[in-house]
């Protein structure tokens, strides 16, 4: 399922226009992104929790040359599925 398919499903399920569903989805993603940027976690009961994870600096390898390279520390988005989501896909 891609974004367009998800918008169609939201529009059908909520009985709203595709344009309104697209704006709602964009708004939800924007709100989650803004909260994660501030370092907050976002919990949607029954769905899951979005949080920010930290990756430490490490040494990797250039796949072409095999030479070691230094990879900087970074932040990444993490998602942990909630009970409702886990039970829904069994």
Can you characterise this structure?
The structure is a single chain. The chain has 90 residues and is of the alpha+beta class. It folds into two domains: 1-39; 41-90, IHF-like DNA-binding proteins (HU Protein, Chain A, Irregular). The chain is 42% helix and 30% strand. It is built from three helices and five strands. A three-stranded antiparallel beta sheet has the order 1-2-5. A two-stranded antiparallel sheet has the order 3-4. Helix 1 (3-14) crosses helix 2 (18-37). The model has no long low-confidence stretch (mean pLDDT 96).
Concise overview:
This protein has 90 residues and is of the alpha+beta class. The protein has helices spanning 3-14, 18-37, 83-88, and strands spanning 42-44, 48-55, 58-61, 68-71, 74-81.
Describe the SSE topology.
Blueprint: H1 3-14, H2 18-37, E1 42-44, E2 48-55, E3 58-61, E4 68-71, E5 74-81, H3 83-88
Antiparallel strand pairs: 1-2, 2-5, 3-4
